[in-house]
Amino acid sequence: MHYLEMVFYYGILTALVLTIVVFVHEMGHYLMARRFGIKVDAFSIGFGRELVGFTDKRGMRWKICLFPFGGFVVLHGENPPYHNTDQMFDAAERDGALWTRPNWQRSLVSFGGPLANFIFTLLLMLFVFSFWGKGVVSPVISAVEIGAGADRAGIKVGDEILSIDGQSVPEQFDDVVRMTQESGDALDIEVKRGEDILDFHVNLIVMKEDGDFGEDASRKIMGIVLGNGSWLLEAVNRVDDVDTFGQPDLARKLILDRLGRDMVVNFGLIKKPGDLQKNYRLRLSKDLNHGLFDPKSAQYDSIFYGDHIKMQTKKIGIGQSAVESLIFSWKAIRKTIGVIYQMGVGQKDAGDLGGVVKIGEMTGGAARQVDIWGYAVLLKLLAVLSVNIGFLNLLPLPMLDGGHLVFNLYEAVRGKAPHPKTKAYIMAGSLGFVFAFVILVNFRDILEIFY
After folding, report:
1. CB distance 255 to 292 below 8 Å
2. Which of 89, 134, 301, 422 makes a 20 to 30 Å CA pair with 9?
3. Secondary structure string (H, E, C) spanning 95-136
């Protein structure tokens, strides 16, 4: 990929995505503060030296700073005058000060940021589902895992599944998964191959997996891939009998020679011992993989399988779109809670949470496929980041919104705010923890890219 392309996809676009999410978060604090008549001194996107800005008629400074990965609002009178509680403050200093507001109002101002992220995610996904619809799975088999039940039964790439255990194949992939899990040790599958209707008895394999919270989430699989998807060439370890590990150019050449014909591809990103690898029989079309011929194409380093250029979708009503938005948001939050939980019990490390580098990798990857999969991919990524930033900010760390809410709760129970020195010590310790955590997470992401 051209250097300028990399800067755009993995730098500028990542900064833009993070800026949008942070802007939404800080706007939540701003609007809640304005609702209660609290004065806002500054609204900043980014940190460091101010690049551009202006002061509005209320005296608030709007600005964009040098480093766009973050932002903040400055509320007037955030800290009460503990140094001399008997001192009389003039009206100008007291007017609009946060510390003069009731505890419940200050709590809602802290909660305003995460709330804005949650609302933004719901509205964004409501738009995605209403405008693009919900993805539906193609019943045409795109790939068959070598040695799995479907392969042993004689099912081939290109077969179209008509029914499973006598039930017509639904449009939703989740339903196909559900039907498989609810079956016994085998399935009876009816497929269409050309003009022929064929029946197969497929024995299922149990795949061992861990759930979001480390629980046993083993599932039954028949060893087929449905619908559309893509693999990076760097994850192709072998094509037929030729080893291509670490040689994406060789993998590309071999795949180009086999377009339109069946081939066996060993796929799996190998970054540490035990990483999963599988052999798939698949047939790649030239129409979906024209990018492999053009070094300037954003798809030059990817292969696309399936039978459609774009993901198929089904239009759904506004009511169902709202339900799907709630389900999407809950799944994103559950995943994050699961990673944090497994980190706490030692089943995962901090690198599994991902940092700015990982966000950039995901954003750039999604954007590069945008002409294939549609802008819905980027919007879904934006929604996931928004809901996760909203949730993470509710963690009870003093530097985060959740920490402020804990102080508000303490004040509500004790009838007074914690002593400023105690609060300062906790804030300082929390800041050190957050910095160490950010460094650890992003250092891991950087190592994964180069190794």
Report:
1. yes
2. 134
3. CCCHHHCCHHHHHHHHHHHHHHHHHHHHHHHHHHHHHCCEEC
From residue 293, give the alpha-carbon distance in Å to each of 64, 266, 397.
41, 22, 51
User: pLDDT for 406-444, tens place per residue?
Assistant: 888 988 998 887 777 777 667 666 656 555 555 555 545
Contacts of 436 (CB under 8 A, 6+ apart): none
Q: How far apart are CA 394 and CA 113, in angstroms?
A: 9
Q: Is the whole model's pTM more than 0.85, yes or no?
A: no
Tokens read off for 279:
């052999």
Share of the chain above pLDDT 70, in %: 72
Residue 136: CB atoms within 10 Å: 15
Q: Which amino acid is at 165?
A: D
From 3.40.50.2300, 3.30.420.40, 2.30.42.10, 3.40.50.150, which CATH number describes the 135-305 domain? 2.30.42.10
Does residue 368 surpass a pLDDT of 70? no
3-state secondary structure of 241: coil
DSSP tag of 210: B
Residue 111's alpha-carbon distances to 77, 392, 395, in angstroms, are 18, 12, 11
Per-residue exposure over 329-366, b if at least 16 CB sit within 10 Å of its own CB, e if not: beebbeebebbbebeeeeebebbebbbbbbbbbbbbbb
> Residue ranges per domain, the chain?
3-132+382-450, 135-305
Please state the rounded mean pLDDT for residues 136-164.
88
Compute CA distances 264 → 67, 241, 280, 307, 412, whole Å: 46, 8, 5, 18, 64
**What is the DSSP code (8-state) at residue 148?**
S
- Tens-place pLDDT, residues 291-342: 889 887 777 888 888 876 556 677 788 888 899 899 888 888 887 787 676 6
Q: What is the mean pLDDT of residues 251-257?
A: 94
Single out the residue of 266, 258, 233 nearest to residue 145, CA to CA. Answer: 266
Q: How many CB atoms lie within 10 A of CB 395?
A: 14
Q: Which residues contact 399 (CB under 8 A, 6 or more apart)?
A: 427, 430, 431, 434
Q: Where are the beta strands (DSSP E) in 15-128?
A: 40-55, 61-75
The continuous run of DSSP H or E covering 443 comes out as: helix 420-450
Residue 289, C-beta contacts closer than 8 angstroms, at least 6 positions apart = 255, 259, 299, 303, 304
215-229, 339-353, 401-415, 432-446: the lowest-pLDDT one: 432-446
Residue type for 33, please? A
Q: How many CB atoms lie within 10 A of CB 264?
A: 15
Cβ neighbors of 50 (< 8 A, separation 6 or more) are: 44, 63, 64, 65, 66
